[in-house]
Amino acid sequence: MPKRFRMTRRFPVAMTEDGYRRLRRFATEAGLDEGEALSFLFEHFDSVTDSENLTARLRLFNSELDARKR
């Protein structure tokens, strides 16, 4: 039986402009709205990410995070 798609949580999210533009582009290409696209990405996180690349990208992002907040 398929999962019922119902938004159960709403939360404020801070995103960079680049991140939001990429989310919107992904959502449009997939025929989803932004919330549905985020749900898809997080429900299938392990299968849509490369763990080695993710670790390196996360390390780089964290090193630049303080500068991005200013």
Helix fraction bin: 55-70%
Determine the mean pLDDT.
Answer: 87
Number of beta strands: 0
Question: What number of domains?
Answer: 1
Distance between the termini: 47 Å
How much strand content do the residues show?
under 5%
Order of helices and strands: HHHH
Summing up helix and strand content along with how strands pair, one would put the structural category as: mainly alpha
Radius of gyration based on Cα positions: 14 Å
Low-pLDDT runs of 5+ residues are: none
Q: What's the total helix number?
A: 4
Most strands sheet: none
Backbone shape: globular
Essential attributes:
mainly alpha; single chain
Describe this protein's structure.
This protein has 70 residues and is mainly alpha-helical. It has one domain (17-69). Helices cover 67% and strands 0% of the residues. Helix 1 packs across helix 2.
Compact description:
With 70 residues, the protein is an all-alpha fold. The chain has one domain (17-69).
Topology:
Layout lengths: L16 H14 L3 H10 L1 H4 L2 H19 L1
Helix pairs in contact: 1-2
Protein name: Ribbon-helix-helix protein CopG domain-containing protein
Organism: Palleronia sediminis
